[in-house]
Structures are given as structure tokens and as C-alpha cells.
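Input sequence (151 aa), recorded before submission:
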Amino acid sequence: MPTHTNIELFEQVVGRCLLKLYQGFPTPIDLEPGRIGVEVATELDLEDEDSAVLILSGADHAVGFLVREGFIHFNPQSRVMTGPKFPGAVLTLKGLHLLGKVPSSVDSSVDNRPLADRLGDAVKDGARASIADAVKAIISGAFVAVGSAVG
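Predicted structure, C-alpha cell format:
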């Protein structure tokens, strides 16, 4: 069984999470990181206990990261002990903008489709490298957007 790094698992969770929110936009959805973690664990064929713990806790932390960085908004007042971890989750304008952003500096030989479309195709095809590439582009775009807003 291959070993996966935290960042690889993060990329898989973030990709699936953003895709779910994009596909449901603008309707808020109840986001369950544990379920997303199980999807990733199943896709990556993670069977040992350490991997299961890592993906389940890692999924929660990955979604928390997206919330803290302003990509996702949710209704924390709707949290209940037995309910969803992130109730009423929806992409923010920042999150939606990044998913649909096509940099003008990209040449024609690069996939110019919106990142959300690339994520959808990658998840559907089970293409782990494509999901990772799309998530890296999203995170890079966030740093560029934050840098230009601050500077």
C-alpha cells in the first residue's frame, strides 16, 4: 500500500470539498469533513488504522483551513452536537472567484478551463495528480490575490 503525505491527503480533501460547494452554489450545504475523508480514503485505498485516523482528522483540519482563509463561510450558530461540522456551508466570493479564475498569463497549451471544472473532471476520473494540480493553482491564486490586496 502506498504511503501518502499530509499534503497529498490535504489536496484530495480540499479538491472534493471545493467541488461539492461549487456544484451546490449558491445553495448552502451541510459539509461533513468525515464523509469527504472517507471518500478520499476509499479512493486512495487506505486500509490501515493510522491512515484512517490521519485522513479523518486531516479532513476536518483541511476544511477548517478553507474556512479560516475565507474560501468558505458556514453558519456556526447552527452547529449541534450530532449535526454537521460545517452547517450551511457556501463558497465565499473569494472562493468562487478563485475557482473560476483563469490567469491571463497562461498560454494556450495549458488547460484554461475554470479550476472548478478541472476539479470535477479529476474527481470523476479519479486522477489524483490532477486534483493536486488544481488545488495548488487555487492556493497559489489565493496568495496572489491576498498579496495584491495588501500591497
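Checked by second reader. The first helix runs from residue 6 to 24.
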